[in-house]
């Protein structure tokens, strides 16, 4: 069925701009130094410009919120923010140890398992958790431009003094794995990678939300949710399979807000301008610009969409 033009977007997109410490310039200070200063990405200005061009000037209600954050020792640091889902611009193997993924691994890590050498928790817990889902749903490899939504465990306690779960900081209960590269590398040659990836993200969110209200009903008879919560984050319990691990960590909540930063703007060398334009365009086309059923090449909407996407390539 063709999408009709919606008066408002059902999802709020929280667009994060942050320094990019993983890209040191020549003669830059040591990124590990407390006195070092990271070069701003310029991403927030590009977000703002793209929103103005494609939403404000078109008379459309913008679903975007701009925020600023930074990378701290414990991960991502932001003020007064809540969101349901955060986008990981990961690699195809789900190894979350660099750039924004590194911040997420630090931010969402769980308490150390017994005998762990990690005093403050399991750094690889998030990677292991994501890779369980990759093994089950993508045979361990998700091609760039695809999206997989991974629920975060709801029942693991944190060692923080306020007794809150780390997976619930900022209200995050799901992680959208959205690789822009197979392995860390320059992907600036891929002219519409970001547009395609964001389209895949929104499609995955719609599927998630359609299933969100009945997911727990289909799993309660096959998984003892009360006794399957003791294994460490990303680890299988005794006698447990990858499939039952996935079911016991399912989230019940729909996704209404998504936090995302630049896609491919670090190691991938995609310019902030192209990234911002393609993110905003993909949202506009997906939610606000319906096309008729059974379109053909002479359909005006297809032509106009293509022209708009082509116009972002040299940004």
Question: Mind explaining what this structure looks like?
Answer:
By secondary structure, this protein is an alpha/beta fold. The chain has a single domain, classed as Leucine Aminopeptidase, subunit E, domain 1. Helix content is 30%, strand content 10%. It has 8 helices and 8 strands. A 6-stranded mixed beta sheet has the order 2-1-8-5-7-6, with helices on both faces. A two-stranded antiparallel ribbon has the order 3-4. α1 runs parallel beside α7, α3 crosses α6 and α4 crosses α7. The chain is globular. The two termini are 33 Å apart. About 18% of the residues have low confidence. InterPro entries: Macro_dom-like. It comes from Panaeolus cyanescens. This is Macro-like domain-containing protein.
Q: Mean of the pLDDT scores?
A: 75
Number of domains: 1
Helical region count? 8
Strand content: 5-15%
Low-confidence stretches: 20-29, 33-40, 113-120, 155-167, 216-233
CATH topology: Leucine Aminopeptidase, subunit E, domain 1
Series of H and E elements: EHEEEEHHEEHHHEHH
Q: What is the 3D form? A: globular
| CATH homologous superfamily identity | Leucine Aminopeptidase, subunit E, domain 1
Protein name: Macro-like domain-containing protein
Organism: Panaeolus cyanescens
InterPro entries: Macro_dom-like
């Amino acid at each position: 069925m063709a999408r009709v033009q919606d008066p408002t977007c059902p999802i709020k997109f929280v667009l994060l701009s942050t320094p990019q410490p993983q890209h040191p310039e020549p003669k830059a200070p040591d990124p590990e130094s407390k006195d070092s200063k990271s070069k701003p990405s310029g991403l927030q200005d590009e977000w703002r410009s793209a929103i103005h061009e494609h939403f404000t000037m078109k008379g459309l209600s913008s679903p975007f919120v701009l925020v600023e954050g930074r990378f701290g020792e414990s991960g991502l640091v932001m003020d007064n923010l809540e969101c349901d889902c955060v986008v990981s611009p990961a690699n195809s193997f789900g190894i979350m140890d660099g750039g924004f993924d590194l911040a997420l691994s630090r931010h969402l890590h769980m308490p150390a398992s017994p005998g762990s050498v990690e005093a403050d928790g399991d750094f690889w817990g998030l990677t292991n958790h994501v890779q369980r889902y990759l093994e089950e749903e993508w045979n361990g490899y998700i091609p760039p431009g695809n999206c997989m939504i991974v629920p975060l465990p709801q029942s693991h306690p944190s060692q923080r003094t306020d007794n809150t779960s780390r997976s619930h900081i900022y209200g995050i209960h799901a992680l959208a794995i959205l690789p822009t590269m197979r392995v860390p590398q320059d992907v600036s040659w891929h002219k519409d990678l970001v547009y395609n990836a964001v389209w895949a993200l929104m499609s995955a969110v719609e599927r998630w939300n359609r299933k969100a209200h009945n997911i727990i009903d289909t799993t309660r008879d096959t998984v003892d949710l009360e006794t399957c919560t003791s294994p460490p984050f990303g680890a299988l319990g005794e006698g447990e399979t990858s499939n039952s691990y996935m079911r016991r960590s399912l989230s019940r909540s729909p996704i209404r807000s998504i936090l995302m930063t630049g896609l491919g703007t670090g190691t991938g060398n995609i310019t902030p301008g192209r990234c911002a334009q393609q993110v905003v365009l993909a949202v506009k086309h997906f939610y606000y610009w319906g096309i008729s059923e059974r379109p053909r090449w002479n359909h005006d909407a297809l032509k106009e969409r293509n022209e708009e996407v082509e116009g972002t390539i040299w940004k």
